[in-house]
Amino acid sequence: MKYPDPMRVCPVSKTCSHVDGYLCDPNTCLSIIVEKLKVWLGAEGKSFFKEIKAKHGQIDAVFMEGRIPHPVHFREGMQVRNFLRGLPECKDWDAHDYDNKWVLLVEEGIK
């Protein structure tokens, strides 16, 4: 799209800074964020989240390590959200966006 439709806002990032102020295709915006996340996670991070998903059925699981709960959302999830805070594609997100989108992004990144 050469000229953005002012009524259309990308659901991934409200201001898609990577396309010089023009609104992008939401799939393009999502794929840029996912690619950056995959590089940041590396093989070890992707392996961790794949294992959590396979073992517990969801990325943001809470499981027991002996008698101590391990809440992925508050531990590894916080690291992912902090990484996303540094991306220009996510600069206009609020706390709810980070909380609501990090699992989707990780799941896309480990496919």
Instruction: Give the beta-strand count.
Output: 2
Largest sheet, strands/sense/barrel: 2 strands, antiparallel
Low-confidence runs of at least 5 consecutive residues: 1-8
Q: What's the rounded overall pLDDT mean? A: 81
Q: Largest sheet, order of strands side by side? A: 1-2
Separation of termini? 28 Å
* Computed CA radius of gyration, to the nearest angstrom: 16 Å
Give the amount of beta strand, in percent: 5-15%
- Net shape: globular
Number of helical runs? 3
Structural class: mainly alpha
Instruction: Estimate the helix proportion, in percent.
Output: 40-55%
Please trace the helix and strand order, writing H or E for each element: HEEHH
Q: Would you give an account of this structure?
A:
The protein is 50% helix and 7% strand. The chain has 111 residues and is mainly alpha-helical. It is globular and about 40 Å long.
List the helices and strands and how they pair.
Elements: H1 26-56, E1 62-65, E2 68-71, H2 76-85, H3 95-109
Antiparallel strand pairs: 1-2
